[in-house]
Amino acid sequence: MSKPLLRIVLSAVCFWLSAIATAPVALAAPPAAVSTSASAGSNGPPVPTLKELQAQEDRLKQQVSTATGRKQLDDLVDDIQGLGANVDKLNEKLAPERAQVQDQLDVLGPPPRAGEEPEAQAIADQRASLIAQGARLDDELKQAAGTKEGLANLTQQIAKMRRTLMRNQLVLQSGSILGPTFWAPLFKLEPADELRLHGFSDEVAAQWQSVWRKGQRGLTSFLLLAALALWLLGGRLLERGLAWVCLHRIPEGRLRRSLLAFATAFASVLATALAMQLAYFAVARAQPFTPILEEFADELVKVAITCAMIAGLGRALLCTERPSWRLSAMADPVARALKPFPRILAGLLMVSGALEQLNRAVDTSVPVTVFGRGLVALVVVLTIGASLLRANRVRGALAAAGEAPEARSTLTGLVHAGVTLTVTIAFAALLIGYIAIARFLTYELVWFDIVLCTYYLLTKLSQDIFESLFSAQNSSGKTIKHLFGLDDSHLAQASTVLSGVSTSLLLLLAVLALLQGGVGATPAILVNSIVSAFGNDQLNKMNIAPSHIVNAIIALSVGIYLLRAVRKWFDDDLLPKTGMDLGLRASLVTLFSNIGYVVIVLVTLAILGVKWDNLTWIVSALSVGIGFGLQEIVKNFVSGIILLTERPVKVGDMVSISGVEGDIRRINVRATEIQLGDRSIVIVPNSQLISQNLRNVTMGNRSQGVATLMLTFPLDSDPEQLRDLLLDAYRQHPAILEAPAPSVTFSQLTHDGITLSVTGYVASPRITANTKSDLLFEILKRLRAANISLSNPQMLMVQNQPPAQS
Question: Where is the Mechanosensitive ion channel MscS domain (predicted)?
């Protein structure tokens, strides 16, 4: 490693270990251009006028808007600094003139008041001339201040353009980690990089000397040792104190376990933050940081907090010290195998991240920046890849030993496969030279792991809090029951609703955090960089923004996943506890899904930048299509909305329409599914259920059905005997209800015989047909045993006779 770079890295690391702490989190603004003020002496060059300075400013603005190269931007920065120096010279020239005019006005004094002796006309004219001259000088000073502010804005704009230009260069100007070009900055630096790093090292040394001079060393050493002790021991002591509170002050239940995990992660982050704050006070108490050190400190604090979260979340979720308190279903051997990796990743990421932040603060060249980013990506890839290999090896050993590995859900398997694929792609990108893509993937992978683990921990904690708060066995639940007059079912409903709301909010925050890309760049920035590097003039002409497309795809995927998750929560958790019938629950879930998909489509179109005033031709085409080919689809769609809102039929009803009789299984947007008795499904368009006569068997009464038989007997039969026989058959059948009692009605008396109607009630309309079949078997059996026959209807038989022979 070259001596300048070695000196800077060692100085930066030592400075962070002893000085950097939680400085203000807000990013420091880019340092303003340093103006080299020069007094306008009598023999110096003439000071430009205000109009000349404003003309030069307008010319610089045009040049900045058309600049494309780093050299052009550097030259423009020099021109802006020179123009700023001229503005300072003008201010130095105008300020004494304005003071002189004010002195002359003070000598003349105020004008005479009404009733006083009027002053001479020459004095009044002189006062008016001085007032006008002062107003002109004030206006020029104000315009000069505006010019100075405009130059500062131009400097910030150029800084953003330089960062964008470097980001675009990094997409292409990369080298494989196996090549000498990648490792070249370790052995030889460019002169410009050496100069910048030397300047940063001098600032670090000056800052350190301000607190290490004689008389300050004792206090500085004490504060730094206190910060180190707080960082090493404070987290453990705080964690043990919170664990004691969980064990002795929290009621028994799952809340203890989730609170302990949260306390472990919280203690790690809090101890790191407090230790760095104390170290910051120890080093910055004598003099404030320079702008470059301030920017470096701000970014380094973010990396330190990130590393503390990685270590804390790893200890909290693995929980190797108390396996029975582990939140996840991870096997204990796997957890022990993964125990060192969060700390290893946090430590390596802290060192490599500090190097990258040093490159960013000093604004090093592209090769040095590529080296720093590649080193960070390599550290993350190797650490996470090693943890995956070790976990898979332990799971394989458990399976070989006959022990069942931990049960994993489909989502967990997808996450594991996605992490493995990302690590593989990132490592391949490092090998073939795409450092920017590897750095993006690794940083996003770290950020995804942090957000996912935090979401999982907070979700478990919120669910356990509401479950414990509204539990009927705890004092809090009993107090709520007594205070609001609720029963246990209402407490369960409140717990489910609040848990669902908190989970939804946490999921929304997690998605927003992932889209923001807290550690690395966002996907939109990477896509824009790649497109800009290869040229995006054609896309601009077509008004297509690559970032909008990426964001729209992400929003569509996340929206569909969220909608399905919330729908499943409605269907499985919330609605079953409300006491609603199955049909109403199915209607609400279907209606919610339809509205949700419409909202997702609208949000996706809005992210794409689609303006509704540009869709007039689409609406016109749809209106024509609706008038011809789409009218049936629209009619069925509207009928489906009517079925879901008015609910003439609902899921679970037994209906009969056009000779089709069965149970409604699902009401879709276009058609309704009816299941027949043979388990086959008939698809009926929704418009038929609205426009045709429909028999809803279970709408009036779901709890009872009627089994009625009408039998005709000969005229010489004994009606009372028949009545007793039929009633006895009905009463002995197990499906016939005792109340209302079965009854026999004398229905008709004709020349064909007597017709009796026997009626009995069953528990459900769906068993009416089977009950009738059983009753007919039993009744015919009893009629034969009593030698009673059914009446044969008299029919007029007409036969064809052969013609008579003549």
Answer: 633-698
